[in-house]
């Protein structure tokens, strides 16, 4: 049977100061009256029944989940005791789905993507679930529209079907020069969406990450038992942080890439809002009451009234206790600075 897993445990550091450790970006309502998580859930429930949609997140976010999606039953919520990157959270959901259905097929969906043209999205996912029945691990490649340095790229290999290719190579977040070269060379953006048989994924996990496999098999044996939480915490202490891309997808021979036509954006930086929200006549994206004069190509998010005069290519984000002012050319450095603040006792309260 077909299932879905929504990954909702990320920290969204590059959208600071809106996205905070206690309330990260997947729970934010930046495009209207629904959060990223709610929009993702709405997309998936058009494809699958709600009782087959799982959500995985850190245990500290339990109350956020229950508030945003009260209709989701407890048995469909999977909580991690620690944040250990995407390999761990996907493997954990696999354990719960496997317990429910040994013949399960699982789709993995990040919760922080913006996707338009839902009909094309649904069509691509239905095709992906069918392909996964043939023992493929299916990923979805997006035709690039710009030299994006915040995305991963996939090199297409041999064509094996209409819009379907073997994968030759992954490249993570290249610099601008390399991104331009990759686009000219026919690489695709990696959407981070995967569909596979749980049994297939676990075979690959055992092959490439046997340490992980052994830990999660012990966790699997403890599900529904009194010692589950104890075994879960003990197992997670032994896990290194590693992404599913690095651990499995870059190595497996089972991976195929399906070229997808739905419009997709990984809203990982403030610049993403220029591609999604309406700009004024000077290229500014403004989400606040503001007077903006002689200013071009700026992004302004604020909970206060803003007056901006004579600025260009500036990101200005203001919340109650913090303000970000950043030139767009420096946006990639936000995450590094935030990680540095985490080590500073004086400022870590602002995270």
Automatic annotation (TrEMBL):
GO molecular function annotation: GTP binding; mannose-1-phosphate guanylyltransferase (GTP) activity
Domain MannoseP isomerase/GMP-like beta-helix: 290-339
InterPro entries per record: GMPP_N, ManC/GMP-like_b-helix, Mannose-6P_isomerase_type2, NTP_transferase_dom, Nucleotide-diphossugar_trans
GTP-binding among keywords: yes
Record-linked Gene3D superfamilies: Spore Coat Polysaccharide Biosynthesis Protein SpsA, Chain A
Pfam families: ManC_GMP_beta-helix, NTP_transferase
Enzyme nomenclature, EC number: 2.7.7.13
Keyword terms, alphabetized: GTP-binding, Nucleotide-binding, Nucleotidyltransferase, Transferase
Catalytic class of the enzyme: transferase
Similarity comment: Belongs to the mannose-6-phosphate isomerase type 2 family.
Record-linked PANTHER family: MANNOSE-1-PHOSPHATE GUANYLYLTRANSFERASE
Name of the protein this chain belongs to: mannose-1-phosphate guanylyltransferase
């Amino acid at each position: 049977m077909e299932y879905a897993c929504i990954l909702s445990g990320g920290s969204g550091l590059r959208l600071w100061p809106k996205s905070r450790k206690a309330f990260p970006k997947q729970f934010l309502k930046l495009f209207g009256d629904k959060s990223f998580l709610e929009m993702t859930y709405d997309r998936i429930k058009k494809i699958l029944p709600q009782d087959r949609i799982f959500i995985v997140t850190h245990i500290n976010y339990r109350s956020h989940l229950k508030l945003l999606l009260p209709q989701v039953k407890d048995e469909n919520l999977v909580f991690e005791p620690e944040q250990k990157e995407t390999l761990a959270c996907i493997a954990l959901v696999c354990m719960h789905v496997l317990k429910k259905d040994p013949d399960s097929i699982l789709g993995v969906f990040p919760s922080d993507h913006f996707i338009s043209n839902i009909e094309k999205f649904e069509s691509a996912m239905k095709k992906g679930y069918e392909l996964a029945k043939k023992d493929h691990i299916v990923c979805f490649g997006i035709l690039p529209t710009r030299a994006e340095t915040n995305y991963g790229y996939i090199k297409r290999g041999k064509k094996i079907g209409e819009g379907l290719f073997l994968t030759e190579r992954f490249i993570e977040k290249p610099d601008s020069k390399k991104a331009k070269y990759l686009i000219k060379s026919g690489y695709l953006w990696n959407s981070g969406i995967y569909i596979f048989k749980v049994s297939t994924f676990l075979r690959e996990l055992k092959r490439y990450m046997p340490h992980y496999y052994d830990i999660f098999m012990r966790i699997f044996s403890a599900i529904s038992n009194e010692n589950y939480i104890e075994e879960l915490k003990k197992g997670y202490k032994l896990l290194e942080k590693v992404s599913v891309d690095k651990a499995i997808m870059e190595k497996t021979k089972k991976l195929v890439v399906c070229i997808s036509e739905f419009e997709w954006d990984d809203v990982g930086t403030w610049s993403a809002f220029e591609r999604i929200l309406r700009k004024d006549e000077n290229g500014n994206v403004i989400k606040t009451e503001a007077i903006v004069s002689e200013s071009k190509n700026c992004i302004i998010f604020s909970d206060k009234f803003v007056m901006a005069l004579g600025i260009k290519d500036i990101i200005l984000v203001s919340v109650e206790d913090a303000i970000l002012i950043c030139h767009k050319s420096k946006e990639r450095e936000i995450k590094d600075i935030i990680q540095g603040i985490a080590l500073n006792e004086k400022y870590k309260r602002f995270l």
